[in-house]
Amino acid sequence: MRNRTIVRGIFLLVLSLGLLSYGTPTKAQTPEESGTLQFTANGEDFIREGFTSKDGWAITFDQVLVHLTDITAYKTDPPFEPGENDFLPQAAVSLPGGHIVDLVAGDESAAPIVVGETPAPTGQYNALSWNMVPAPEGEMIGYALQMVGKAEKDGESIDFTIGVERGYGNVCGEFVGDERKGIVQPGGTADVELTFHFDHIFGDGELPEDDGLNVDAPGFAPFAALADSGTLETDLTAMADSLPEDEYQMLVDILPSLGHTGEGHCEYEELSTLEFTANGEDFVRQGFTSKDGWAITFDQVLVNLADITAYQTNPPFEPGATEFDPQLAVGLDGTFLVDLAEGDDSAAPIFVAQTTVPEGQYNALSWNMVPATEGEMAGYALMLVGNAAKDDESIAFNIGIERGYSNTCGEFVGDERKGIVQPGGTAAVEMTFHFDHIFGDGDLPENDGLNVDAPGFAPFAGVAQNGTVDTDLTALSEALPEEEYQMLVDVLPSLGHTGEGHCAYEELGSLQFTANSEDFIREGFTSKDGWAITFDQVRVNLADITAYQTNPPFEPGSGTGLIAQQTVELPGNVVVDLAEGDDTAAPIAVATTVAPVGQYNALSWQMVPAPSGDMAGYSLWLSGTAEKDGETLPFNIGIEDSYNNLCGEFVGDERKGIVQPGQTSDIEMTFHFDHIFGDGSLPEDDGLNVDAPGFAPFAAMADEGQINTDLAALSEALPDDQYQQLIDMLPTLGHTGEGHCFYGETGTLQFTANGEDFVRQGFTSKDFWHITFDQLLVNLADITAYQTNPPYDSDTGDIPDAEVAVSLPGSYVIDLAKGDENAALIFIDDLIVPAGQYNALSWNMVPAEEGDMAGYSLMMVGTAINNFQTINFTIKIDDSYENFCGEFVGDERKGIVPANGTADQEMTFHFDHIFGDGNLPKDDGLNVDAPGFIIFSMLSHTDSMEIDLSSLSLSLPPEEYQKLVDSLSTLGHTGEGHCYYGE
């Protein structure tokens, strides 16, 4: 498996363009063919009108506040039914940010409360998810739910405020109620509803006592018992200490189930809290003596942190020792400016932020220290402000570091373990900074490794003027001797730790994303049909802008694939006016972001309809004037479709995207509008002019000397061939300089391997040997997924005839015995692929070229036991095996990749084909064909056996050897789906 770095990692796209067939786009989805999706929340009449609890308390509410995040509606196919089938979203629309909603708002007849709305493509949104999590600020700070009201019974009245500080996740199916919700019609508004059932807490006095809802509900009595003088103000923390254990557990068990969609149920997950902290340790808070005798104290140690992410890794990540293989990642959005000198010498680590997370051990941590873009730290990633004193000399210093650094660290090493999150609990992870790496430590010997590598304070003192040092790396590069400056530059990346735990370090540079439509737009040009065109505005709405470091270099259409060693993404949408500037203008700066050093030789982006503003509903807007033969036509042309671009290296007079440490490089999104209008300076039969519509189709839309049109209008007004020519060319606008791109929709396809329970748990062979595996290694190559139509039938014995084929390069050694009996499928790698259904899969199991598996395609290491003998075996197979398989057969469908979504494909291995299955009848076909373990045991004369296929060919009777050879070729499946095994 390739390494996963801080930014999401290793992608491949093999585009065998001879196989690709996306169909021809027809009419765009216009603003009238999209609509609005409204998200609402409803506490129902229980909350708005009040109700009687199961134990007779009449409850009314003044406020029921919920803090909601990550609210998302989905189109699922098949429809998602919690607990019944898998959640397979085909498209999603989200409401960003956090929302505090008072479910009591409105009177007893009030409609559900509108939380927010967003533009949405037409269709049925039949699934819904959200988190109810503690608010980070405001009136609900620290609480996910807060109930304020009154309860009355038998003359007793209690005013209550009850807070819930735990978080809960909900993934729900279609709304169940008197109407259907979530069906977005063209130009219309539909709603989806987050429903909350508070009778789950308090029960319902109108239902029988033994109704399931009342049996599970705590009722109000446990709360009433905590009231003091008619008042109750409490939360889960207080109730954990105050309530009997069984009553508290009853409450904790029921809280996750509040969320519904109408009467429709959800899948629930209790969320916990992970705190991210930063620590400069006593060196920063108390001060210390440098290796060269300067007593240093700090007024401020400012660091600007970004991309902070905690991981659950298995095996645990140890920098330099194990591969970084995260199973789960939880990140913080945005940047955080932290003063590590804050607090006195006994201060705790500094709280940076917290987020709601699934339970488990977060045993790896990454972050970037990057230059701030604004404020007192603008341009600097680190700023040290303080005083140094030695031999009656005192120097006030202000030292800025303008380079960025990346850290990927293992588990916290210290007096305690960190990052272990219990259900509903809070744990912390710590970003630790060791500034003795810069200044050394006067308490250590001079020849200690830390002091040998540390510059000390003397180089800074050497640039002091009038008792003051005010400097940064740029100034120091000029002022310091080369070796001293290099010593400083070399040590700066190593400041980051997790306690005493080390990290993998990487120095960062900056990558500037630019957009360029070249002289055609800035100067104007003549179309292929003689119209002199000038532009006032050419506005594009760009999203998902991503740069890649690829090896080998990605060349669209070449079949070499996109293998990204590093990715850097720009979040959000940006509107760019490509006509900005005069004819000498440089490409337009879109945004600059910190990036690991290296060559970014591939680039992707989407041109999508803007969700709001002047461009709302359009991805491209062209305004200008066209003139021909004395006729002048002002034009406004809108384009409503979305377009994807996945491009290779910039092709032009210079190389772009080469990021050096601490330096800025640019990468360019180029747009060729001569693809639409043609180029009058080229021959008429030039390929570009043959394919380009020209300006004449637009001129034909003129009304009273003006053109105001878009794709929807053009689809109705133009002849079919002219309209088709236009929509065929629009996807091809994007380039990188003169470099071409791949223009289809993409998603992510994950490849997994599964040896099933036979391998992970062990099993009994047909001849009653109990077999367990320590390792079951396979070497897989030429792993390829296909989109086939009609679906591939392995029984035909043909090789898949594919419309799309995507492949993983190289080979992968996989241990199918990895993990316990509950282990997930083994992740191999993933690819960026054209969206669609991958309903065929092939791979070869071939001898490895190096390592422990060198010369072998399969290695089985384990123990076999029967009533008389124990054999520790190592069985090695050196033959190669081909597998051509159809669609996965199992409890779920696999391989359906939605645009911008993820799906998986599984290579399944059935080792009962070799050993048989003692749980099946002796005459079952599988057992009849399987050799069993006895053929191996007969060759063992001790309690240990190591054998390979060549030895077996000499030792076994010919018919037994042939049976083994035949069974080995049939190991590969896709779930229970069979394969064609080649020649």
What does this protein look like?
This protein has 983 residues and is mainly beta. Helix content is 14%, strand content 41%. It has 24 helices and 61 strands. Strands 2, 3, 4, 5, 8, 9, 10, 11, 14, 16, 21, 28 and 30 form a 13-stranded mixed beta sheet that branches. Strands 17, 18, 19, 20, 23, 24, 25, 26, 29, 31, 35, 42 and 44 form a 13-stranded mixed beta sheet that branches. Strand 9 (145-153) and strand 10 form a beta hairpin. The radius of gyration is 33 Å and the shape is globular. It starts with 33 loop residues before the first strand and ends with a strand.
Topology:
Blueprint: E1 34-42, H1 44-48, E2 51-52, E3 58-76, E4 89-95, E5 99-102, E6 113-121, E7 123-124, E8 127-132, E9 145-153, E10 156-164, E11 167-172, E12 183-184, E13 189-196, H2 199-202, H3 212-216, H4 221-224, E14 231-235, H5 236-242, H6 245-254, E15 259-260, E16 266-279, H7 281-285, E17 288-289, E18 295-313, E19 326-331, E20 335-339, E21 350-357, E22 360-361, E23 364-369, E24 382-390, E25 393-401, E26 404-409, E27 420-421, E28 426-433, H8 436-439, H9 449-453, H10 458-461, E29 468-472, H11 473-479, H12 482-491, E30 496-497, E31 503-516, H13 518-522, E32 525-526, E33 532-550, E34 564-577, E35 588-596, E36 598-599, E37 602-607, E38 620-628, E39 631-639, E40 643-647, E41 658-659, E42 664-671, H14 674-677, H15 687-691, H16 696-699, E43 707-710, H17 711-717, H18 720-729, E44 734-735, E45 741-742, E46 746-754, H19 756-760, E47 763-764, E48 770-788, E49 802-807, E50 811-815, E51 826-834, E52 836-837, E53 840-845, E54 858-865, E55 870-877, E56 881-885, E57 896-897, E58 902-909, H20 912-915, H21 925-929, H22 934-937, ...
Parallel strand pairs: 1-13, 10-14, 16-28, 25-29, 31-42, 39-43, 46-58, 55-59
Antiparallel strand pairs: 1-6, 2-3, 3-4, 3-5, 3-8, 3-9, 7-12, 8-11, 9-10, 11-16, 13-15, 16-21, 17-18, 18-19, 18-20, 18-23, 18-24, 22-27, 23-26, 24-25, 26-31, 28-30, 31-35, 32-33, 33-34, 33-37, 33-38, 36-41, 37-40, 38-39, 40-45, 42-44, 46-51, 47-48, 48-49, 48-50, 48-53, 48-54, 52-57, 53-56, ...
